[in-house]
Amino acid sequence: MNNYGRLILTVAVVSCLGFLCSVCEAKKTPNGEHLYKQHCASCHFAGGNRVKAGKDVAGSTHLSSLPVFKAYLSKPPGHMPHYQHLVSNEALLKALYQYCKTLKSVPMKQAMTN
C-alpha cells in the first residue's frame, strides 16, 4: 500500500472512531451530582448558599417540581449565572433536579469543616 492509501485508511479509521465516541457519549446517563459540582457548588456548597444565607438549595420551594425548577433556572435572580445548556436539555435538567432533591440542609460552618 502506498502513502496515499495509508492516509485514506487512517482518515477512515479516525472518522469511525470519532463517530463511535460520539455515540457512546450520547448514551451516557447524565450525573446530577457531577453537574451540581461543576455548575452550582461554588456558591451552593453542600446544598447551602454562600451568597444569601438562608436561601439554601436544600429544601428550596424551587424544587417543588421539575417545571418550577426549570422556570427558576430559566430566569435566575441576581448574579446567579444562566446555564442555557442545562435548562434546554431535559436529561441534564432532570438529573440536576433529582440530585438537588437529595440535598439536606447542613449549616454552612459545619459543611465547610467536613
Topology:
Elements: H1 3-27, H2 32-39, H3 66-74, H4 84-87, H5 90-102, H6 108-113
Helix pairs in contact: 2-5
How would you describe this protein?
- The longest helix is centred in the N-terminal third of the chain and has 25 residues, at 3-27.
- This protein has helices at residues 3-27, 32-39, 66-74, 84-87, 90-102, 108-113.
- Mean pLDDT is 81; it is low at 19-26.
- The chain is built from six helices and no strands.
- The protein has 114 residues and is mainly alpha-helical.
- Helices cover 57% and strands 0% of the residues.
- Helix 2 packs across helix 5.
- 14% of the residues are buried.
Rg (C-alpha, Å): 21 Å
Number of strands: 0
Give, in order, the helices and strands.
HHHHHH
User: What is the strand content?
Assistant: under 5%
Tally the helices.
Answer: 6
Q: Give the CA-based shape.
A: elongated
The main sheet comes to: none
Distance between the termini: 62 Å
Q: What would you call the structural class?
A: mainly alpha
Q: Indicate the mean pLDDT.
A: 81
Unreliable stretches, pLDDT < 50, 5 or more residues? 19-26
Percent of residues in helices comes to 55-70%
